[in-house]
């Protein structure tokens, strides 16, 4: 590293500050020159606008004077002029024909706000408008959720008796009942010869039994005996 490089390495902050100041000064000078140039151009445009306005004012004043002279000449000849008076045809003609034309200056500062105005009188109600067309029925909405069942209400009073109902149809005949005897078919209850107070089932048409010679067997123990 050379001596010059060492010096620059030690003083680089100062050099950077100097370069920054020079750059800022150059930018300020450029902006100042641009603003000055714009101001001069605005002044030139203002001068040109004033000159153009004065020329137009002179033209309007000349035309108005010529029209008045023509109207006076026609009236002197007993004719009716077709063109109206310039003052009647053009509103504020004297102000428009004034030379030099007054150029409005820069806008002044805003004034203080004025007091709030009073409420105006209520207007008359307007006439009723025509009736609108009847709207179409909308689509049915979705069914809602079933609500909780409420408590049962009190029983109402008993209603009047209804008319008598029609007679029902006759039922089918039942099956024939069995005979009151408990003996099977072909048998009937008959008193045994040894016990007239009892009844036993004997075959119909059977011969009468012979009396039992052995009195040792009681009639109550006979195997073919049945008590009622």
UniProtKB/TrEMBL annotation:
It comes from the Bacteria. Residues 122-152 have a biased composition (Low complexity). Residues 69-228 are annotated as: Disordered. Residues 69-78, 88-98, 169-179 have a biased composition (Basic and acidic residues). Residues 154-163 have a biased composition (Pro residues). Pfam families: Collagen. This is Collagen triple helix repeat-containing protein.
């Amino acid at each position: 590293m050379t001596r010059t490089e060492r010096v620059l390495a030690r003083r680089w902050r100062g050099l950077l500050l100097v370069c920054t100041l020079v750059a800022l000064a150059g930018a300020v000078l450029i902006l100042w020159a641009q603003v000055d140039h714009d101001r001069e151009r605005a002044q030139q445009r203002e001068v040109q606008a004033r000159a153009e306005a004065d020329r137009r004012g002179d033209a309007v004043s000349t035309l108005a004077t010529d029209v008045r002279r023509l109207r006076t000449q026609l009236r002197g000849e007993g004719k009716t002029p077709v063109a109206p008076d310039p003052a009647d045809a053009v509103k504020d003609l004297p102000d428009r024909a004034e030379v030099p034309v007054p150029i409005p200056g820069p806008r002044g500062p805003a004034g203080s706000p004025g007091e709030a105005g009073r409420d105006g009188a209520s207007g008359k109600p307007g006439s009723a408008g025509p009736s609108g067309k009847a709207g179409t029925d909308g689509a049915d909405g979705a069914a809602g959720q079933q609500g909780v069942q409420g408590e049962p209400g009190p029983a109402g009073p008993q209603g009047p008796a209804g008319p008598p109902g029609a007679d029902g149809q006759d039922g089918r005949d039942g099956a024939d009942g069995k005979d009151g005897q408990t003996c099977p078919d072909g048998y009937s209850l008959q008193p045994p010869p040894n016990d007239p107070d009892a009844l036993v089932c004997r075959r119909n048409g059977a011969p009468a039994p012979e009396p039992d010679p052995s009195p040792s067997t009681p009639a109550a123990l006979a195997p073919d005996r049945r008590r009622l």
